[in-house]
Write a structure and sequence with these properties.
Layout (H helix, E strand, L loop, with lengths): L4 H11 L15 H9 L2 E8 H8 L6 H8 L1 E10 L8 H13 L3 E7 L6 E9 L2 E10 L3 E9 L3 H7 L17 H4 L1
Antiparallel strand pairs: 1-2, 2-6, 3-4, 4-5, 5-6
Length: about 180
């Protein structure tokens, strides 16, 4: 998943904005995702709870950022659906997912549509006590739909550190954070 520098900056800025109003939880998989699942020719689905994430992070023991991020997470759920022909899945199911997150009060922060196609990337945030508590990512490609939910205390920067791990797409073009130790 490619997110331009501007989008990553927007996410970081958004992290500082408190949520307006009460938000409903969405603990279950949206109905639209279930419809996409049923029509897929192949499926890859898994959920890692906190203890499994900690264990999996030991594969990369030198990655301090990854271990710090995992400390605040409750879990990661990944659902990847593949279709035998381009655009074979129901576009109405994608729209239903977007509607369901809106009704539940999640903040829709990214809506990046691919030019000349029905594909794109959507990211929603759920706020709790003025902090991001959950992130949902929906990536639609011609033959594939990926749906990822990260639950727990997470910031946009944390999400970029998770990219490329546990089935979460790598976020490219992210914001570089100065490292004081590197500059000395």
């Amino acid at each position: 998943m490619k997110l331009p520098h501007l989008v990553s900056s927007f996410l970081i800025g958004l992290f500082a904005i408190p949520s307006a109003g009460a938000q409903q939880r969405m603990e279950r998989i949206p109905q639209g995702i279930e419809a996409l699942r049923m029509s897929a020719s192949s499926k890859t689905e898994f959920t890692l709870d906190h203890s499994m994430l900690v264990l999996a992070s030991k594969i990369d023991p030198d990655n301090e950022d990854l271990r710090r991020v995992i400390a605040g997470l409750n879990g990661v759920s990944v659902h990847s659906y593949h279709y035998p022909r381009p655009w074979m899945y129901e576009l109405a199911a994608l729209a239903a997912v977007k509607d369901e997150y809106g009704v539940a009060g999640w903040k829709h922060v990214i809506n990046k549509n691919e030019r000349d196609s029905n594909g794109g990337t959507d990211i929603w945030l759920r706020w709790e006590n003025n902090a991001i508590s959950n992130v949902a990512i929906l990536v639609a490609k011609s033959n594939e739909v990926d749906y990822i939910v990260v639950s727990g205390s997470v910031s946009p920067i944390d999400l970029s550190h998770l990219g490329g791990h546990f089935g979460i797409p790598k976020i490219e073009g992210g914001v570089a954070i100065p490292n004081e130790a590197r500059n000395k």
